[in-house]
C-alpha cells in the first residue's frame, strides 16, 4: 500500500474535523439577547474550541512525524489508523457536548467531561498502538536506537496517561479534569524529544 | 488522466463523508433530560456510526489497493468512480435515518434498513464495476493471474451479495439485516486474499 | 506557483461541495409521517442531487483534463480558478433551494431554477475563462493544434450556452429548464472530443 | 518534517472553510415569504460571502507562494501554521454573525464587525509571523535579497494594518469597517510585488 494515500486520507479527516470544531461557536443570532452577552455566555465553547483545536493539531504533527518514517504500509497499520480516525472524528461532537454541560455542574458535567476525555484517550491509545506497530524490525525507514525508543515510548504514552487521569479527576471536579485535558497539547508543544521523527532527508518527498 | 488526482478527489470525498458521520452523534443538549439518558437512548446512532465508519474505511482501503495497481485512468473509470462516490456520499444521511428508525419497528424500520443497505449495495456494485473494468488487458500495472482473478472477483462481490441478503432479510427482521450489514466490514478486515493489491514497489510513489 | 497545490485545493473544494450535496437528502425523522411518504415527497431533492452530483463530477473531470496540461500557474489562473470555485461552492445551497421550490410552481419555482442555472452558468463561464487563458502561447505543456482548439472551444462553451437557455426557459417552464440543466452532464459524459487532454505521459505524475 | 503534508493539511482546512461559507446562504424555504424577498433580505450574507471567499482565497494563494519557497519545516513553523488555521477556521462562523448583525446597527453591529475583523487580524498576524520565521538564514530555498525582503514585509503586513484600522472604524461605522475589510483581498489581487514567491523551477514539484 501507499504511504502517501494513508497520509492524504488522514490529513483530509484531520482537516475536516478541525474545521467542523468552529461550527460550535455559531451565535444564535438576533432575538437571543445582545451579541456581547451571547459571546460571554459562550465562553466554555471558546475554551473547548482551543483545547480541541490544538489537540487535533498536535496529533496531526505527531502523526506526520511517525508515519513519515514508516517504511511499509500494511493492512494492520491501515486498520490501526482507521481506529485513530474513529476517535478524531468524535472530537467535534464531544467538544460541543462538553461546552454545553461543563458549567452546569452535577452529574451531567461529569459525564460530558468523561466523554470528552474518553475520545482523546481512544485517540491516544490508537496512536500508541501505531507507535508500537512501528517498532517491529523493518517497519521504519530509520529504525530507532534503543535509547530513542524508550524516550519515544514515554512521549507517545504520556498523553494517554494524562487522559486517564482526567477521567478519574472528572468524578471529583470536571473543570480540573478539563484543565488536565487542555494541558496535554501544551505539553506536546514544548516537549521536544526528537525521537520518532523522520530522517531529515525525508522532507523532500 | 492522472491517477493521483482520481485518488486525491476520492480520498477527499471519503474523508468528508466519514467525518460527517459523527455529526449524527450530537447530543440534544441541556433541557432534554440527563446526559446519561440521552446517551443511552442514542445507542442505535453509535451502532450505526461504527458500522458506517468501518464500511467506509474498508472501502477506502480496498479502493486504495485496486486503484493503486491501475495503469491508465480513462473517462470510463472516472465515471465508474463517480458512481461509487455517489453512493458513498449518501451514507451519512442513510446512517442518520437508520439510527432514528431501526428501533421503532414496523414498516418504517424496514424502509430505513433497506435504504441503508441499498446505499451500501450501490457502493458494492460500483466497486465491482471498477474491478471488472481493471480486468481488461493493459489496465493494471501488474496483471492478475487467472487464479488470483477468481479469488479477487469472489472477494469484491461478496459484499454486494451480503447487502442483497440484508435487503431481503430486512422485510422479516430489520435488526438481523443490520447485523448482516455490520458483518461486511468485519469480513473484509479479517479476509486477507492478497489479490488486487498493487505491487510492493508501488508504495514509494 | 505549483500546479499541484492548485489541483489539491480545487479537489478539496470539489470533494466537500459534492459531499455536502447529500445533506439535503436528510429525512425529517419520526413524527413527520411514514418514512415511505417522506421519501416520496422528497423526490425533487433526489433529482436535484443527481443533477448537481454529476455536474460537479463532470466539471471535476474536465478541470482535471484542462489543468493537467497547463505548463505554468500564474496569479491570473489562480484567480480565475477561485472564481470557478466561488460558483462550485454555491451549488449545494442552490440545489437545496431548487428542490424545495421547483414543485410549488409560480414565481418562486422560476426564481429557484434561475438561481440554480445561474450558479452553473457562473461555473461554466469561469471554466471557459480558464480555457481561453490556456490558449496563449506557452501556457500548455502540449499546445492544441488549431483544429483541436476549435473543437475544445465548442466543447467548453456548450455548457454555458445550455445554462443560458435554461434561464430563458425557466420563465416559461421551470421543470423543462431543470431538464436542460440535467442534460448538460449527460452531454459531457457521452461527448468524447479528446481536445484539451493532458499528454498520455502526464499520468505518471 | 515534510512540506508536502503541511501544504496538504492546510489546503484541506482552507478548502473546507471556504466551502462551509456558502452554508450561510441557505434560504429558509417555503413558508418564509416569496423567494425573491428572502434573497433581497439576505444581501448582507452575499456581501459577507464574497468578502470571506476572496479573503480565504487570497490567503491561500499567498500561503502557497510563501510555503512553496520554504526549505525546512520545523515544529515552530508547524505551530505558527496551526495558529493561522485556528483563525481561518473561525471565518465561516464570524461571516454568519456579521451578516446577521451588520444591518441592525447599534452595539451588536459594532461587536459583529469587530469579531469579523479580529478573525482576519489573527489570520494576518499569524501569516506575518510565518513570514518573519522564513527570513532567518537557511529557511528559504531561495533567500530574499534585502530589497525584496522590505517589499515583502510591507506586502504581508499591510493586511493586518488594514484590519486594525477596520476595528477602530467599526466603533464609528460598521458598514465602512466592512468596506475596509472587503478592500483587503482587492488590494492583494491587484498588488503584484513578486517578493516571497517560490523560484520558477519549483512549479514542477
TrEMBL record, chains A, B, C, D:
The chain crosses the membrane at residues 44-61, 73-93, 113-135, 156-189. One of its GO terms (molecular function) is potassium channel activity. It is a multi-pass membrane protein. It is found in: Membrane. Keywords: Ion channel, Ion transport, Membrane, Potassium, Potassium channel, Potassium transport, Transmembrane, Transmembrane helix, Transport. This is Uncharacterized membrane protein. Belongs to the TMEM175 family. GO terms for cellular component: membrane. It catalyses: K(+)(in) = K(+)(out).
Amino acid at each position: 500500500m501507499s504511504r502517501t494515500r494513508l497520509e492524504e486520507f488522514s490529513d483530509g479527516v484531520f482537516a475536516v474535523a478541525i474545521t467542523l470544531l468552529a461550527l460550535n461557536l455559531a451565535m444564535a443570532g438576533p432575538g437571543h439577547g445582545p451579541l456581547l452577552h451571547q459571546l460571554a455566555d459562550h465562553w466554555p465553547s471558546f475554551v473547548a474550541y482551543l483545547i480541541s483545536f490544538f489537540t487535533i493539531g498536535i496529533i496531526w504533527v505527531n502523526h506526520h512525524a511517525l508515519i513519515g518514517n514508516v517504511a511499509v504500509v500494511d493492512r494492520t497499520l491501515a486498520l490501526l489508523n482507521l481506529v485513530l480516525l474513529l476517535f478524531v472524528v468524535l472530537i467535534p461532537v464531544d467538544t460541543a457536548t462538553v461546552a454545553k454541560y461543563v458549567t452546569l455542574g452535577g452529574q451531567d458535567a461529569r459525564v460530558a467531561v468523561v466523554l470528552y476525555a474518553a475520545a482523546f484517550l481512544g485517540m491516544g491509545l490508537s496512536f500508541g498502538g501505531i507507535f508500537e506497530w512501528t517498532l517491529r524490525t523493518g517497519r521504519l525507514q530509520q529504525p530507532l536506537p534503543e535509547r530513542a525508543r524508550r524516550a519515544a515510548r514515554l512521549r507517545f504514552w504520556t498523553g494517554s496517561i494524562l487522559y486517564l487521569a482526567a477521567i478519574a479527576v472528572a468524578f471529583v471536579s470536571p473543570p480540573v479534569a478539563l484543565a488536565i485535558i487542555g494541558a496535554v497539547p501544551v505539553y506536546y508543544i514544548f516537549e521536544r524529544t526528537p525521537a520518532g521523527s523522520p530522517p531529515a532527508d525525508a522532507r523532500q518527498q
